[in-house]
């Protein structure tokens, strides 16, 4: 009959750790790797937080007030613009009475259609449609608009 091994004392465990030197550096290496990973995640989180703050900053725009320039720009922006014709693409319909409609192609009419109001403003050298609740729509040229980095081309 075999007998169970005798219980190990704390001194014998220290001796076995000292006799197995490869185990301790591996544990330290793993701890350093985990610490570096945590530092990288924290850096990424702070950077993402700073980007959110810059997006929320108000953009300085100057509302057009001169009647002839306003009429010319109004004529340029009236029409229908789209990102494409496939389901999921979006359409902008700009009318002359200060209304803009955002439509998702193929979506339920109750949820895929948003109507908003706009006014034309100058932002630096470019013109924009400033909406009440949908953000800025940049007017690139007579046939192109950009809304949240999506490019809309004139269809009508």
Topology:
Blueprint: H1 10-19, H2 23-55, E1 62-63, H3 67-77, E2 79-82, E3 90-94, E4 99-104, E5 113-123, E6 126-131, E7 136-141, E8 144-147, E9 150-154
Antiparallel strand pairs: 1-5, 2-3, 2-9, 3-4, 4-5, 5-6, 6-7, 7-8, 8-9
Notes on the protein architecture:
The chain has three helices and nine strands; from the N terminus they run H-H-E-H-E-E-E-E-E-E-E-E. It is of the alpha+beta class. An eight-stranded antiparallel β-barrel has the order 2-3-4-5-6-7-8-9. Strand 4 and strand 5 form a beta hairpin. The radius of gyration is 31 Å and the shape is elongated. The termini are far apart.
What keywords describe this structure?
156 residues, alpha+beta, eight-stranded antiparallel barrel, 9 strands
Average pLDDT, all residues: 84
Q: N-to-C SSE series?
A: HHEHEEEEEEEE
Per DSSP, the total helix count is 3
Q: DSSP strand (E) fraction?
A: 25-35%
Spatial arrangement of strands, main beta sheet:
2-3-4-5-6-7-8-9
Radius of gyration: 31 Å
- What is the strand tally? 9
Structural category = alpha+beta
Q: Helix coverage percent of residues?
A: 25-40%
Low-confidence stretches: none
- Can you tell me the overall shape? elongated
């Amino acid at each position: 009959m075999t007998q169970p091994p005798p219980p190990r004392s704390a001194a014998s465990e220290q001796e076995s750790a000292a006799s197995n030197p490869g185990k301790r550096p591996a544990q330290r290496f793993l701890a350093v790797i985990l610490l570096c990973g945590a530092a990288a995640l924290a850096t990424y989180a702070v950077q993402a937080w700073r980007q959110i703050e810059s997006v929320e900053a108000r953009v300085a725009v100057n509302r057009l007030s001169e009647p002839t320039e306003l009429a010319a720009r109004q004529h340029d922006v009236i029409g229908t613009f789209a990102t494409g014709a496939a389901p999921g693409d979006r359409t902008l319909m700009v009318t002359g009475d200060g209304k803009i409609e955002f439509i998702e192609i193929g979506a339920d009419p109750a949820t895929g259609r948003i109507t908003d109001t706009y006014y034309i403003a100058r932002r630096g050298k470019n013109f924009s449609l400033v909406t009440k609740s949908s953000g800025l729509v940049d007017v690139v040229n007579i046939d192109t608009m950009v809304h949240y980095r999506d490019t809309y081309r004139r269809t009508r």
